[in-house]
Write a structure and sequence with these properties.
A hairpin with a 2-residue loop joins strand 1 and strand 2. The protein is 32% helix and 22% strand. It is α/β, with parallel strands linked by helices.
Length: 167
Amino acid sequence: MRLIDEQYTKTPFYGSPRMCCVLRQMGYQINEKRVERLMRLMGIQAIYPKKNLTKAVKEHKKYPYLLRGVKIERPNQVWSTDITYIRMRRGFLYLCAVIDWRSRMVLSWRLSNTQDGDFCIETLKDALATGVKPEIFNTDQGSQFTSPRYTKVLLEEGIQISMDGRG
């Protein structure tokens, strides 16, 4: 348990499979189930973003998906945005980017150490500050993109909002 604790302090993103490999490299004969049990007993688990980074908020309005069967033929017809995470030595940074579907050009991007909606709104405003706007703006149904503050920016510009459904 001491060795697991020491290794976990150095690499908190190691789960039981990786931790088991480290212990075996040190010469210990141990299996993954035991490491898993000991980590559970110690109250530690790997730190990493779980699936579904963003959750929808029931109170926020969801917009329909407008792009089914639509042929993207020109730049600025459809823009899209999403958030992804970038693993750092200690924790994660979150990247929000706005892209044009036709040209695949990144129109704006921002990094944040939190997943709050403010940096997503600023990314959107940066893209719109170019003086060009899309006909349709597509996002997922994450809380950052369904928030009234986010959709208000799009609606004020007269941009149609499209949201991917689950799956």
